[in-house]
Every structure is written in structure tokens, then in C-alpha cells.
Specification:
binds 5'-O-[(R)-(carboxyoxy)(hydroxy)phosphoryl]adenosine; globular; Nucleotidyltransferase, domain 5; 41% helix; five-stranded mixed beta sheet; binds zinc ion; alpha/beta; single chain; 331 residues
Length: 331
């Protein structure tokens, strides 16, 4: 079995995965959403402090599996350096004391492998990764052959939901909150501009849309904005945010219809986005893969699933050589 740890942002999570069957033996996650909600976003130092409390608590429940462990896996990039450090420190201590190898896992590959938890991998797959930190399209041919073919020029899809939510004091994380509030709103009330509409390139941008929403909120009275106006802003914003992604993904399908397509990352839980992608794939006879909702946001089960493949390839990292990275340029 492999014990995997995830602490790249505001979720403390540990999983145990059986190497041969890929079955998830144990999985627990403690989210910090409530604690960060008052600040309207993740406060890195607070997140790190909360990992220090939560990770040992979860680990305590895993002790019975220690004799069966063959490796320790941990997310080491990309993420918040102070929070990644907490997971990496725990992983190093475990690998050292149990005298087993250490596996450093790329968090983005983790999101991709959230599709394959307790399942075999399916490649080649074109992947839309939408999270709080990333908005990318990735051509994935295998674990070691992944290429980013499109990215955001500024904010990410999930982040724009977080910021819109914060502007109206609705709380964190913004994605599910804006989605929920939008259900009560009129999506056609505000005509926000779809970003990069005239540009031929397949790339994303959310800062312009965010500013358009900010200006509209100011016009509606800023802090005194009425409840129904909030709902209408949420619905109109979400409609535009998804229209932008869809316009670019359709462009990609025009260039070449992918055999397999998937959406991963925390924001892949967005129903409007899921529905629009489902329709597009159906129309083009593309097989669509979606992670289960419980594995869309950050978790250690997806890290453990990548680690099984790395273990089979003997892709280990020396305890003294593991580093944490805030960003990665490519896979
Ligand atoms: O993957 P994730 O858990 O963490 C990162 O790696 O960033 O993604 C969290 C992001 C947050 O920005 C959150 O607001 C967004 O995913 N999110 C959503 C939805 N659920 C979560 N965005 C839009 N619609 C949702 N339903
Ligand atoms: Zn993530």
C-alpha cells in the first residue's frame, strides 16, 4: 500500500491506496473552508497552521496500515509553499522512520488522475483543468507525456468565482456559493462581455470579466447591494464565465475532435460547465470522463492514484532532495 498526503492549499488529506488493485483503502480530508471564509480567501499562514493540527490527527487513524506500506507519496508542487511544506515534512519523517521510498507527486497530475481513482487510466485524453489556481487544456498521452496547450493569461476560472463572491461578501469558496445564488437569479439581466471573444487563440482570461462585475456591483450600491441583485449578478457572471470556456473549447474541437475529453479540478463541479461540456461531447461522439464530485476538489486519493503509477515506474525522490514549488511551467 501507499500512504499519500495532500496539503497544497486549504485541504488536509491522507489516503491509503492498494498498489496492485488500485483500491482506495482509506481516505480522509479535513477542509478549512470555514476558517478562511471570514477572510474571503485562503490565508496561507493560517492554512499551514491548520495543517499542523489536522494532518497528525488523520495520520493517527492510519497507524494500523503502517506495516503494509511500501512508499509514502506527497504533493510537492504546485501550491502554497508554506502549506506544501507541512505535507512534505510529514512525508519525509514517515519515509525515514518506516525506511520506505518517497514519491513526489505533481498536484495537477493528481487532478488528472482523480478520473482514474480505483480505475485504469485512459489515454490519450484532452483535459480541461479548472481549479482555484489553474485554467488549462492539457493533451495527456501518458503519466510522463502531458503537454499544456492552453492556459489563462491572468486569473483562473475558479478564482474568478471566489473574487466575485468576495465582492458581494458571500463567503469562500466562491464557486459553489455563486452557483447556488445564481440559481435564484436572472442570467440575462447583466450583459457582461465574454472575454477574448474576437481573439483567434485558444487561451483564457478572467480579469476583465471580474472588473466588469466589480463595476456593476458598484453601480448596484456596492455593500448595500440588494439580495435579488446579488442573485442576478451571480447568474449573469456564471453564464459569461462558462460561455468563455465553451467558446474556446469549441474552437479546439473545430481544429480536431478529441477521442476522449475530461474536466478535472475543483471547479469541474460546476453544473453549468459540466452540462455544456456533456452536450458538446455528445454532439461530437467524444467520450467524456468526469471525476466523481467528491474527488473534484483537492484530496489525497488522487495523489495516491498517481503514486501507484510512479511506484510501478520506481519514480522515487531522495528524502534530502525533495523540494516544494509554488508554480510549474510544464509537466
Ligand atoms: O482544485 P481545487 O479544490 O483547489 C485548487 O487546486 O485550486 O479548486 C478550488 C476552486 C475554488 O476556486 C472554488 O471556488 C472552485 O474550485 N469551485 C467552483 C465550484 N466548486 C468549486 N467553481 C465554480 N463552480 C463550482 N461549482
Ligand atoms: Zn487543486
Amino acid at each position: 500500500m501507499i500512504l499519500s498526503i495532500e496539503s497544497s492549499c486549504d485541504d488536509s488529506s491522507i489516503a491509503i491506496t492498494d498498489i496492485k488493485s488500485k483500491k482506495l483503502i482509506y481516505h480522509k480530508k479535513i477542509s478549512q473552508e470555514l476558517q478562511h471564509s471570514v477572510y474571503g480567501g485562503v490565508v496561507p499562514e493560517l492554512a499551514a497552521r491548520l495543517h499542523v493540527e489536522a494532518l497528525p490527527k488523520i495520520l493517527e487513524e492510519c497507524k494500523e496500515y503502517f506495516p503494509k506500506l511500501k512508499a509514502i507519496a506527497v504533493t510537492n508542487a504546485p501550491g502554497l509553499s508554506v502549506t506544501l511544506m507541512e505535507g512534505v515534512t510529514m512525508a519525509k519523517a514517515l519515509a525515514l522512520s518506516l525506511d520506505i521510498p518517497l514519491i513526489a507527486v505533481n498536484h495537477l497530475k493528481g487532478h488528472i488522475y482523480s478520473l482514474f481513482i480505483e480505475k485504469d487510466e485512459v489515454f490519450p485524453t484532452t483535459i480541461l483543468l479548472v481549479s482555484g489556481g489553474h485554467t488549462q487544456i492539457i493533451e495527456a498521452n501518458s503519466l510522463n507525456d502531458m503537454k499544456i496547450i492552453a492556459s489563462t493569461l491572468d486569473d483562473s476560472f475558479g478564482e474568478s468565482f471566489d473574487k466575485v463572491s468576495k465582492m458581494m461578501g458571500l463567503g469562500y469558496p466562491g464557486g459553489p456559493i455563486v452557483q447556488e445564488n445564481g440559481l435564484k437569479g436572472d442570467e440575462d439581466r447583466f450583459d457582461f462581455p465574454v472575454p477574448l471573444r474576437q481573439r483567434p487563440n485558444i487561451e483564457f482570461s478572467y480579469s476583465g470579466l471580474k472588473n466588469a462585475v466589480r463595476m456593476q456591483i458598484e453601480k448596484l450600491g456596492d455593500k448595500d447591494i440588494k439580495e435579488q441583485d446579488k442573485y442576478d449578478v451571480c447568474a449573469s457572471f456564471e453564464k459569461t464565465a462558462v460561455a468563455h470556456i465553451m467558446q474556446k473549447v469549441k474552437k479546439l474541437f473545430k481544429q480536431k475532435i478529441p477521442k476522449n475529453f475530461a474536466i478535472v479540478g475543483g471547479a469541474s463541479a460546476n453544473i453549468r460547465l459540466r452540462t455544456a461540456i456533456e452536450e458538446l461531447c455528445q454532439k461530437n461522439n467524444t467520450k467524456l470522463f468526469l471525476s466523481q464530485l467528491k474527488y473534484c476538489s483537492d484530496n489525497a486519493a488522487m495523489i495516491g492514484r498517481v503514486a501507484v503509477e510512479q511506484y510501478n515506474q520506481k519514480d522515487f525522490t531522495l528524502i534530502d532532495e525533495i523540494d516544494v514549488q509554488t508554480r510549474i511551467k510544464d509537466f
